[in-house]
Amino acid sequence: MTPITKDMIINDVIKKYPETIAVFNRFNVDACCGGGASIEATARADGVAVDALLAALNDAA
Predict the structure, then answer these.
(1) How far is CA 47 from the centre of its chain?
(2) N or C: which end of the chain has fewer CB within 10 A?
(3) What is the pTM of this model?
(4) Which long-range contacts (CB under 8 A, 24 or more apart) does 44-47 make?
């Protein structure tokens, strides 16, 4: 598996790893309207700790 990184686009991650949708929801990250942006940009805009989100995404994937 390729690790999920902060520079990846949310929509691309969800397409490759659909199970990550639950993680985005749990962290209250806007995976719908913010889905065209990077994980880092959207997480920061939503006030989410990027490192914690990435760890959870990689665990799920």
Answers:
(1) 13
(2) N
(3) 0.93
(4) none
Contact 52, 23 (CB under 8 A): no
Full DSSP string of 1-61:
-PPP-TTSBHHHHHHH-GGGHHHHHHTT--TTTTTTSBHHHHHHHTT--HHHHHHHHHHH-
Q: Vertex 11, ends 19 and 1: CA angle to 5°?
A: 50
What count of other Cβ atoms lies within 10 Å of the Cβ of residue 4?
23
Q: Where are the domains of the chain?
A: 10-60
pLDDT < 50 stretches in the chain: none
> Are the C-beta atoms of 57 and 51 separated by less than 8 Å?
no
What is the number of other CB atoms lying within 10 angstroms of the CB of residue 52?
11
